[in-house]
Structure formats: structure tokens, C-alpha cells
Write a structure and sequence with these properties.
The chain folds into 4 domains: 2-105, GIY-YIG endonuclease; 116-266, no CATH class; 270-385, Ribonuclease H-like superfamily/Ribonuclease H (Nucleotidyltransferase, domain 5), CATH 3.30.420; 390-574, Nucleotidyltransferase, domain 5 (2-Layer Sandwich). It is 39% helix and 21% strand. The chain has helices at 12-17, 47-58, 70-79, 91-105, 156-164, 166-170, 185-188, 202-217, 221-238, 242-266, 314-322, 341-352, 368-385, 390-399, 452-464, 503-515, 548-574, and strands at 2-3, 7-8, 27-32, 38-44, 82-87, 119-125, 132-135, 148-155, 272-280, 285-294, 297-307, 331-334, 357-360, 407-416, 420-429, 432-433, 439-442, 496-500, 522-526, 531-534. The strands form 4 sheets. Strands 14, 15, 16, 17, 18, 19 and 20 form a 7-stranded mixed sheet that branches. Strands 1, 2, 3, 4 and 5 form a 5-stranded antiparallel sheet that branches.
Length: 575
């Protein structure tokens, strides 16, 4: 690997002007803001092409269904003032290096796993008489405290046992922060050889430290330790030093329990792991749920989520996740294949020293694996649904919509004869009024008599004929209702259109949508019996008057009527 010269400029756009300095090799790129802080780390097969794609994205003014990360990625790009590159020989090395750098620098726009604290590291300090301590990271991902050799990761319970339990006592490792002038209780209960008062030579102390390092470095060292302790136990027993022999016997049992636990942990390599991923297209987040099965029983579940920013994708998540674990299973079952699947398998194989296969669960074959993956996906759906207004969820189910009606537009016309005719459109986001999305219209195509059908057709056409609209799923920020980015929502196409009226008004609106080339679910609500008309059904739908979905539709209809009537009255006052 070779670190090339930094490209330092005042903005991302100036960086791309120096494109001749951008290498075409595979490797890693580190994006920095003006303070020098790394805010994003990514990998690429061709670094120049990847940076070019960012430049092209930043200059686009329209969105499509494939750009879920558009706004957030562009916001990230606007912060970039410097880029560093690290070249690698191939994509596999790029996978490994990217993961290590992300863990080290923890950039704010990269995927961050929230429960890495389940796996901890141990440190043998670089002091005159080294100590064994739990190694803790700070917010930047660096290990805190004194310098030393890092070992791990270990399962949390094991690390605590290793650092504070029997292993430390066997090798008489001191626990004091500073060497005292007099021996402490640990010396008198035979847990420490008191290097503080020279009861043990520095050379002898380091022999114990080196043995401890061997145990952490080699899995077979624990077995060798048990063998040596058994020999020592026999010697002490022959000397009739039975108390010491009993102490050694108890120590052997404790270490054997640790060895059994290690073997149990290693079974994860041959047992099954299922990972389901589901995208919430409205917020641009991927939700992940992981089930571990040990001997046919679900032994653990974990859930994560991450945003579509930059190169963040399923492959990046999987490598970040597994590189933080002490064990990687040989077979990983997924509901969809990750990007660069082959390279990901090779990178995980290199990391784990055994073959790793990623297998997509077949949806056509009915078996236990499919049943388990279906269970994961149902859990993910429920998790996503909890973020939406219950009335929105109910409306989706009643109308059998493919996606949540997160943004709903409702149209109404208000007229006083043919002299004052206006139209109104109100917008609700997640079941609540979104005033920036309201729009009112003066009817232009007035005829000699009142014609509600023509007026509905006109205002629907005028509303969506503008080129300013974007696909809803590509632009919505997180926590949309309370977000500072709400000004983006008026430029989104709705997930559902509601017309105040009956079958005739619905047909007119449908024609208007076809004329502007849009295919958006549309219904109408007739006030007399609160009937819902839908496209393709000759008979209206009636639901319980207590249903929260109907209450939402009534609120939409009443608000559009109020907004349109207020505009009509205002024009009449002006006239």
C-alpha cells in the first residue's frame, strides 16, 4: 500500500479540478472537513471514477428512485475540504483497510455499530512492572490509558474473567495503578508477588508476563497451562503439600471452564447466522435484524440501522459487523445478496482464516430457513411501522397500498357560482398538516356553468405538471416532522392523493395524472355517506366510522375545504 500526496483545497469542487492528481487505482479515500477531521471513509475499485460520481451527484438538481442518499450525501460533500487516498493492490485489501480505518477514526457519516461494547479488549501495559487491564476506547476510537499491547476482542464476560480473575492471580500480576511503598492486601492473600518491595525480580516478573502474552496470542496456550499445572499439582501432592495441591486443582477447574466456553463460542463458526435487511424508503434507512442459531435454537438477536450516505451499503455493514466479532460463521444466510458479494466473502475468509459463504435464502422453497427469514422480515416490518402514525399504517392496510402514505395530498374546489372559483390542495406528512405544502389555485378554465369535474382536473394537472417534484422516497430526512429540512418536503411527490368528491371527481383526477405521466395511488371521499372510491372498483368502500384511517381522511377533507373556502372569501372581499 502506498499513501500518496494530499489534495488540499477549499472545497470539494476545487478538489475535482485537480482530477489528474486523483489515482485510478483501487484503494481508500478519506474525506476531511476544514478542521482536518475525517468525516467519511470509503473504498473504490477505481478512485478517480468514484470521486467523479460524487462530483456529478453534487451538480444534479433532480432525483430518481436510485438516489435515496442524494440530499445527505450532498450535505456531506459540501463539508469536504481535503481528501487523502491510500492505494491498495486489490478490493480485498480495500475492504480490510476501510474497516480498520473506520474503527480507528469513527467518521460521523460512516456506519457505526451501536453495540460493539459487547466485545472488549485487554491490554498488557508498557510499564516497568506491566499490569493487565481492560482496554477502553475514547470517542475517536483510540485506546485510552497507558500504552501497551492490545489483545482481543473477547466476549465481555470472558474479558472480565481474564483481566480480574484467575489468570491474573496465577501469574501474580499487580493491579495497583502506581507501585506502593509497602505491600498491599493482594500480597498477603498470595495474589501478587509484591514487586513494589522487590519480593520478585524484574526478570522473573517478565517471565510471567511473557507466558500471559502466549495465552492471549495462541489458543493452545491454555491447554499447555493446564498440563503444566497438573504436573505441579502432582509434585505438591507428593510433597504432602495438600493445601497448595488443592489450590492448583481448583485453578485447573476454573481454566477448564474457560476452555469449554471458548469451544462453545467457536461453534458459531459451524452454526447458522441469519441476517435480514429491509429498507425504509421514506427515511432512507436500512434496518437490519440478526438471528444466531446454536444447535437449532435461536441464541441471540441483534438489530442495527444505518443511513444511505456515500458508499454505505449492505456489504460495508456486514464487513464492519463481522470484523468486530471474535468469531465469524462459515455460512451466513441473507434475504438479499450484498453488493460485491464475492469480494466480501474473500475478505471475510481472509479475516477469519476459514471459508465464509454468504447464501441467499430461497423464497420459492418452503423450508425451515425460509420460515426463519420470514420471521426476521416480519420483525423488521413491525420495527419500521412503529415510526409511523398509526392512522397512516391503518390507511395503508385498508387501501392495500404498496408503501406507507407518508405524504398525502388532498384536493377540493370552492366556488360561488362561476364568478369566484378556486381550488385548494393541502398536504399532510405522517398524518399531520404540513403548511409549507399547501397550495391554492384560481380556476382558469371557467365555463358558462359550474363544472366540478373540469376544475378538479385543472388543479391536479397544475399541481403536478411542474418539474420541481421529486420521488418521495429519495429525499425525506430522518424525524421528518421535527426536522430542519422540512422545506424539502413540498418538492416531493405524494404517496397518496385524496379527492373531495365521488366517482366523477376521481375519474377526472385520474385523467389529469395520466396526462402529466404520473402513477400515484388516488382515492376520493364522498361526504354524504363517507364512502371511499378507488380506481378499478365499481362499488365504493365503506369502513367503520370509528376507524382511525377514516378519521384521517375526514381531517384531510375538512382541512382542504377550509383552506379553499378561506381563499374564496378573501378574493370576494378584495373584489
Amino acid at each position: 500500500m502506498k499513501l500518496i500526496e494530499k489534495i488540499v483545497t477549499m472545497s470539494f469542487f476545487n478538489i475535482y479540478k485537480n482530477e489528474r492528481q486523483i489515482p485510478s487505482n483501487s484503494g481508500i479515500y478519506l474525506m476531511k472537513e476544514k478542521t482536518g477531521k475525517i468525516i467519511y471513509i470509503g473504498k473504490a475499485k477505481n478512485l478517480k471514477n468514484r470521486i467523479k460520481s460524487y462530483y456529478n451527484l453534487s451538480h444534479r438538481n433532480t432525483y430518481n428512485n436510485n438516489d435515496r442518499n442524494f440530499e445527505k450525501t450532498r450535505r456531506m460533500i459540501n463539508k469536504v475540504c481535503e481528501i487523502e487516498f491510500v492505494l491498495t493492490d486489490n478490493e480485498i485489501e480495500a475492504f480490510l483497510l476501510e474497516s480498520n480505518l473506520i474503527k480507528r477514526y469513527r467518521p460521523i457519516f460512516n456506519i457505526e455499530l451501536k453495540d460493539q461494547q459487547r466485545y472488549t479488549y485487554l491490554k498488557i501495559t508498557d510499564e516497568r512492572f506491566p499490569r493487565l487491564v481492560v482496554a477502553r476506547r475514547n470517542r475517536n476510537g483510540d485506546f485510552q490509558g497507558p500504552k501497551g499491547d492490545i489483545y482481543g476482542p473477547f466476549v465481555y464476560g470472558s474479558s472480565r474473567f481474564l483481566s480480574l480473575g484467575i489468570i491474573r492471580k496465577i501469574f501474580k500480576i499487580r493491579i495497583c495503578d502506581k507501585l506502593p511503598k509497602t505491600p498491599c492486601l493482594e500480597y498477603f492473600i498470595n495474589n501478587c508477588d509484591a514487586p513494589c518491595i522487590a519480593k520478585i525480580s524484574e526478570q522473573k516478573y517478565y517471565e510471567n508476563i511473557n507466558k500471559l502474552k502466549e495465552i492471549f496470542s495462541e489458543r493452545s496456550s491454555l491447554e499447555n497451562l493446564i498440563l503444566n499445572l497438573k504436573i505441579e499439582m502432582d509434585v505438591e501432592s507428593k510433597k504432602q503439600n495438600y493445601e497448595r495441591a488443592k489450590e492448583i486443582r481448583d485453578t485447573i477447574k476454573t481454566i477448564e471452564n474457560l476452555l469449554i466456553k471458548q469451544k462453545m463460542d467457536s461453534k458459531y463458526q459451524t452454526n447458522e447466522e441469519y441476517i435480514g435487511i429491509k429498507t425504509d424508503t421514506l427515511t432512507g434507512k436500512d434496518h437490519i435484524l440478526i438471528f444466531k442459531r446454536l444447535n437449532g435454537v435461536i441464541s441471540d438477536r441483534r438489530k442495527y440501522e444505518y443511513e444511505h450516505i456515500g458508499d454505505n451499503n449492505f456489504s460495508t455493514f456486514l464487513f464492519q459487523y463481522y470484523s468486530s466479532l471474535p468469531q465469524i460463521p462459515e455460512e451466513i444466510y441473507v434475504n438479499e445478496n450484498p453488493p460485491s458479494k464475492t469480494n466480501l466473502e474473500l475478505a471475510l475468509t481472509k479475516l477469519s482464516n476459514h471459508n465464509v459463504k454468504i447464501i441467499k435464502v430461497s423464497t420459492s422453497t418452503k423450508n425451515e430457513k425460509k420460515d426463519l427469514m420470514d420471521l426476521i422480515l416480519r420483525n423488521l416490518s413491525n420495527q419500521i411501522e412503529r415510526e409511523y402514525n398509526p392512522a397512516v399504517i391503518e390507511l395503508k392496510n385498508i387501501l392495500k397500498l404498496k408503501e406507507f402514505p407518508f405524504i398525502i395530498d388532498c384536493f377540493d374546489v370552492s366556488n360561488f357560482g362561476i364568478t369566484y372559483a378556486v381550488g385548494a390542495c393541502v398536504r399532510f406528512v405522517n398524518g399531520y398538516p404540513y403548511k409549507n405544502g399547501y397550495k391554492r389555485f384560481k380556476i382558469r378554465t371557467l365555463k358558462s356553468k359550474q363544472d366540478d369535474y373540469s376544475m378538479i382536473k385543472e388543479i391536479v394537472s397544475r399541481k403536478y405538471s411542474s418539474n420541481n417534484f421529486t420521488e418521495t422516497e429519495t429525499t425525506l430526512p430522518n424525524n421528518t416532522i421535527n426536522s430542519a429540512e422540512n422545506n424539502k418536503l413540498e418538492n416531493c411527490l405524494p404517496n397518496l392523493i385524496v379527492i373531495d368528491g365521488g366517482k366523477g371527481q376521481l375519474s377526472s383526477a385520474e385523467i389529469a395524472l395520466k396526462n402529466v405521466g404520473l402513477n400515484i395511488p388516488i382515492i376520493s371521499l364522498a361526504k354524504e355517506n363517507e364512502e371511499i372510491y378507488t380506481i378499478g372498483l365499481s362499488e365504493p368502500m365503506q369502513i367503520s366510522k370509528k376507524n382511525i384511517a377514516l378519521h384521517l381522511l375526514q381531517t384531510l377533507r375538512d382541512e382542504s375545504h377550509r383552506f379553499g373556502l378561506a381563499y374564496n372569501l378573501k378574493l370576494r372581499e378584495i373584489r
